[in-house]
């Protein structure tokens, strides 16, 4: 990651616990010959939700950009595009292209102050004095693993509801 990779540590513990419970529960269902059941669906959903909501998200403050990794997408925000930062009830960043919110902003730290401090350091060093006409834009990358897992769970739920398993 970068200079300051921030995650909610108690949330990560909760996420890994949910994943562990899901894996052990599904293993027990497989051992009992009950894999194709609604219990498997619920346990798999708990595991995917635990990862998506608590293990995967983070905020990364580094010299090149601010990274907001949320459950479904990750946003890479170059420093020159940031216009304002708000730290009330999480981290919200307003850029030249829109607004972005961090899912994993730890409330116990003044994360917005860390972001503003890095932004001011870039301004003071002259890194944001760019004479180009086009500014860099934030890039958004979908977290394909989480989206695919949710799609597979949905397909499994539909197949289970229709009784198409043997």
From TrEMBL:
<keyword id="KW-0472">Membrane</keyword>
<feature type="transmembrane region" description="Helical">
    <location>
        <begin position="38"/>
        <end position="56"/>
    </location>
</feature>
<dbReference type="Pfam" id="PF10756">
    <property type="entry name" value="bPH_6"/>
</dbReference>
<dbReference type="InterPro" id="IPR019692">
    <property type="entry name" value="CFP-6_PH"/>
</dbReference>
<keyword id="KW-0812">Transmembrane</keyword>
<feature type="transmembrane region" description="Helical">
    <location>
        <begin position="142"/>
        <end position="165"/>
    </location>
</feature>
<keyword id="KW-1133">Transmembrane helix</keyword>
<feature type="transmembrane region" description="Helical">
    <location>
        <begin position="12"/>
        <end position="32"/>
    </location>
</feature>
<feature type="domain" description="Low molecular weight protein antigen 6 PH">
    <location>
        <begin position="57"/>
        <end position="124"/>
    </location>
</feature>
<protein>
    <submittedName>
        <fullName>PH domain-containing protein</fullName>
    </submittedName>
</protein>
């Amino acid at each position: 990651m970068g200079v300051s990779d921030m995650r909610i540590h108690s949330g990560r513990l909760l996420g890994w616990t949910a994943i562990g419970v899901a894996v052990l529960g599904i293993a027990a269902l497989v051992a009992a010959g009950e894999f194709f059941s609604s219990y498997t669906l619920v346990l798999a959903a708990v595991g995917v939700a635990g990862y998506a909501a608590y293990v995967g998200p983070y905020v990364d403050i580094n010299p090149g950009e601010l990274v907001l990794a949320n459950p479904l997408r990750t946003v890479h925000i170059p420093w020159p595009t940031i216009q304002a930062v708000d730290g009330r009830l999480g981290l919200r960043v307003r850029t030249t292209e829109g607004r972005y919110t961090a899912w994993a902003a730890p409330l116990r730290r003044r994360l917005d102050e860390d972001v503003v401090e890095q932004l001011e350091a870039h301004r003071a060093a002259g890194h944001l004095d760019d004479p180009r006409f086009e500014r860099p834009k934030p890039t958004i990358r979908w977290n394909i693993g989480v989206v695919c897992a949710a799609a597979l769970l949905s397909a499994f739920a539909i197949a289970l509801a229709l009784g198409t398993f043997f």
